[in-house]
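Extended Data, panel c. Modelled sequence:
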Amino acid sequence: MSGIPEPTRPTPRRARNTFAQAKESLAADDAISATSAPVAQQAGATPAPVAQQAAPAPKKRKVATTDILLSVSEELKERMVATLEHTRPRTGITSQQQFIRIAIEQLCKRLESDFNNGEAFPPPAQGVNL
């Protein structure tokens, strides 16, 4: 046996951060920042000047958009990435989001053309979950 210590392995990565996990982590950050300021004041210590943190720039969003969470198989994701990379110069599609938006739009147009005389389908009745 040698005296060389066994190297420590890195901790496994957490699962993907879903919208719910992101919301929880933001709430936890808010709770921590709310409780840390009164503790310093209660101790009678003069708080050290804190560098002003610039508010994060708001994300540029298209008007009237909504977020969706989309799960796809790894095989389909890899297929999309490969297709996107090989066709980028010819299609001008530069991101996975743009690819998905265009795919949804084209499929909707095709289905409307095939099944509704090219007109957009009306929204489903209230209470109908698709």
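The helical segments are 19-42, 74-91, 96-115. This feature is highlighted in the accompanying rendering.
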